[in-house]
Amino acid sequence: MKPPHHADFTALVTATWGRLYRTAFALTGDRQLAEDALQATFEKVYSSWRRVSGAGQPEAYVRRMLVNEVLGWRRRMSWGAERVVEADVDPVTSSHEEAVVTFDEVWAGVTALPPRQRAVVVLRYYEQLSEAEIAELLDVRPGTVKSQCSAAMANLRRLLGDRELSTNGEQA
Amino acid sequence: MNDLDTLLSTAIRDKADAAVPPPPDLKRITSRGRRRSRMRTGAVGVVALAVIAPLAAVAYETVPGLGRDSGSPAASPVIDGVGRLNFGGGLRLWSNQGGTSIHVGDKDIPVARVSNIGTQATGTSYGLVYFAQQRPYLLERSGNSVPLSAKPTADEHSRPHAEVDAQRPLMATSTFHDGAVRLRLYNLQQRRAVDSFQVPCSSDADCSAAKVVAVDQGLVFVRTEAGSYVWDHTRPGDSAWTQVTGPKSKVVAVRNKTILHTGPKPAHPPVGSGSPIDRSWSYTKGAIDAQLSTNGKWVLSWSNTLKPTSGHGAAIRLDLPDDYINATFDTDGSVLAVVAGGHGGYPVYDCMIPSGRCVQVSQTKTGGEPVLVGNDM
Is the bond preceding residue B354 a cis peptide, omega within 30 degrees? Predict the structure, then answer.
């Protein structure tokens, strides 16, 4: 017999899985890790359904659990053959693909950031959260978010080198 | 919004939105979620019998000796015969080359030898603790592994976790087995389990996420969704299990009587409460993934600067190149750090405390960022 909350839980998973998977992918840079993290998160959501469903914004609550799941994996990261970093970067092939290459390089830079800096960048630039919202989600002070974001941008600029950045994706 | 802001938004959106989500495995999610719930429900019965009295179950387990034929399986998930390992500079543990090998001590071990190992590993002064065949093993200096349990201690699909005491030869694990979370305390010198304890779960003490987070002064710190607790295996009955924090604060790490936590600062238990956490212990706040030095004096948290837990005094700045990526405390108290190396691979540095002086000890090949597996993971 299914528990009474089963239908509600299924509805939440169905409605949010795609969005949260993409967030998990942006956080991890790896499709398998993203799926594992989301799977583990929803297992916890299921067993804590009363708390999650009682939250004002269940999806935001689950997103918070997901981010902490991914950050927590730094401590208990699978290793050995079970962890293969997905080099999801296309090689530079020809000049007419320069726009794509630039975005790929930016993405490669994001995936090379330390996990916490990466999380801040993803939450700010992909989830479009404010510093205050990120601080609340990560349970840190807004000043910490600001400094992490600043460090991330400095790292990215260093990784991208001295090339001119253009909003149309082309590089000088 | 400047150009980099725009590029970031576009690049992340393009990549993330292009990632096609696999369908959710609802059957697996609900099955495992139910198992977590059942674990709690089943444990409520236990708690009903002993209300606030936790159930301490001492289960001394003898362990086969060092003979390779006494308990060591012939199958290959166990690391054996890799030659003598040098732990003189710390365990220096990382996986590299995109997961094709691991580095332990002074050796790279091909992944073929460890490809079937479970998911968790912990560096200790006595060697590498890892899980294979649902039981913990210790890879020693000899290059061979010793089983720490004569029989499986975890369910096949559970994710066992281990933490180590930095001062004593003690290691604790939390495993899910037969519908319950059980803590086991091992003596790494004696290579055997010395005690075990079933986590007393209840609807109030949701232990669906129960796991060992630290071992210090012989005490085992456990985090559940209801808060953080300490198991003192030397105390009998009720007094063995006491609460350290409520659900708003989480114990992250504990070293040398310093408790690193998130959330509000926990209050010291009242004098006479019987808690082993008396006023000689101190609290310091940090991020959920921060790390404590083995002496409890420094916090490492995604920065090349170690901050003092005392809250005053100078920080230690590690002398690392700017492309610092990741770091962890090694078993000898130093800091192991990985630096981005572009196309040339990833240099690994060993940094001394308190000088902050760093020396490159290795250069991994290309193929992915190496994953540091420190003694506080």
Answer: yes
